[in-house]
Amino acid sequence: MSDLNVVGATHLATVRDRGGPRRGAEQNQLDLVADGAVAIRHGRIAAVGRTHEVMAEWGDPAVPVLDAAGKTVLPGLVECHSHALFGGERHHEYAERLAGASLAEVAARGGGIWASVEASRSTGDSELRRRLARSYAHILWGGVTTLEVKSGYGLTVAEELRQLTLLEASRQDTPMQLVITFLGAHVVPRDLTTPGPDVEPSQVYTELIADDMLPAVARQGIAQFHDVTVEDGYFTPAQARRLMDDGRAAGFTPRVHADAWKPSQGWATAAGAGAISADHLTYTPDHEIHDVGTTETVAGLLPMAELIYMTERRANARAFIDRDVPVAISTDYCSSIHATSLLVTMTMAAPWFRMTPAEAVVGTTLNAAYSLGLGAECGSLDVGKRGDLIVVDCPHPHELFLAPGTPLLEAVVIEGAVVHAPLVAATAGEPTNHG
Question: How far is residue 235's CA from residue 115's CA, in Å, rounded to a whole number?
Answer without folding.
Answer: 19
